[in-house]
TrEMBL record:
PROSITE patterns given in the database record: HTH_CROC1
Domain of life (superkingdom): Bacteria
SMART domains assigned: HTH_XRE
InterPro entries linked: Cro/C1-type_HTH, Cupin_2, Lambda_DNA-bd_dom_sf, RmlC-like_jellyroll, RmlC_Cupin_sf, TransReg_Diox_bact_type
Claim: DNA-binding is one of the keywords in the record: yes
Protein name as annotated: XRE family transcriptional regulator
Residue ranges annotated for the HTH cro/C1-type domain, each copy included: 20-74
Alphabetical UniProt keywords: DNA-binding
Gene3D superfamilies listed in its UniProt record: Jelly Rolls (2.60.120.10), lambda repressor-like DNA-binding domains (1.10.260.40)
Length: 200
């Protein structure tokens, strides 16, 4: 874990350093000129640019001012490189309350923070033995189910499908759907809801 954090910090230092160097060269400024404008030593600026040291926020703010950019610009390369993937470790999905929670469904959201408009929601759903009648669901978008364990009779519209490990089912979320019968425990399946894309 420590190595992972260290490598992340090294990547951040190198990315910020590269952004500073790129901006400095674009403006046709020397290390001496920027270090004077920012009020830091040339040696320090050189180390920051090569990624061998990480400056504090105050120093980075002064460098950004010297280069005439917002401080966030110094981190833009790192954000672009790291924001495309989200790693959620086993058991670390966020447990959320959804319609069906009261009926014994446990929902673990496997990806989150996707911005203002949700593109998709992937859930790991666990179902307990429960004598209650299970609810039906309707929502925008397309839903994809993939069975991991157990066996379930799942209804979409007026059709019922028996799903076993390795089976999948894809359907229009606007059509009423939901579990009809829980046939074999433990029941676990992935549910991925892909929402319709709204034109800008």
């Amino acid at each position: 874990m420590e190595n992972s954090n260290e490598s992340r910090m090294t990547a951040l230092e190198e990315s910020v350093g590269a952004a500073i160097r790129e901006l400095r060269l674009k403006e046709g400024l020397t290390i001496a000129e920027v270090s004077e404008l920012a009020g830091i030593s040339r040696g320090m600026l050189s180390k920051i640019e090569t990624g061998s040291t990480m400056a504090g926020m105050d120093t980075l703010a002064r460098i950004a001012r010297a280069l005439g950019v917002a401080m966030s610009v110094l981190f833009s390369k790192y954000d672009a490189e790291t924001s495309t993937a989200q790693h959620v470790r086993k058991g670390a999905g966020m447990e959320v309350v959804r319609r069906g929670t009261k009926s014994g469904h446990t929902y673990h959201l496997l990806a989150y923070g996707q911005g203002a408009v949700k593109l998709f929601e992937p859930f790991l759903i666990t179902m307990e033995d429960d004598s209650q009648r299970y609810p039906t669901f309707q929502h925008p978008g397309t839903e994809f189910l993939y069975m991991l364990s157990g066996c379930i009779a799942y209804r979409s519209g007026n059709q019922t499908y028996v799903l076993e490990p390795g089976d999948s089912l894809t359907f229009d979320g606007k059509v009423a759907h939901g579990p009809e019968k829980l046939l074999k425990f433990p029941i676990k399946f992935l549910s991925v809801i892909v929402y319709p894309h709204r034109a800008e």
